[in-house]
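From the pipeline queue, job 12 of 40. The input is one protein chain; the requested action is below.

Action: predict structure.
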Amino acid sequence: MSIRDETTVIVASGLRYKSKEPGSAFPSTPYSGNATMSCLLCGKHSLRSQMMSRRLFGKVHAVCAPQCAK
């Protein structure tokens, strides 16, 4: 069972998570070589430099390298 978080409520304007920290769960990097991305096939987040590009569904997508775990 989940524990209800009393600090987050939906206000009349529709906003939620008034106490939530702003920003992404993934830390920002000063250069794109260290950026994370999710694999199109398995959804696992990896460094962009550790992924490879494959043509899927007529477009190029990033997948785990050398083979996806799925």
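Job complete. DSSP finds no helices and four strands in the chain.
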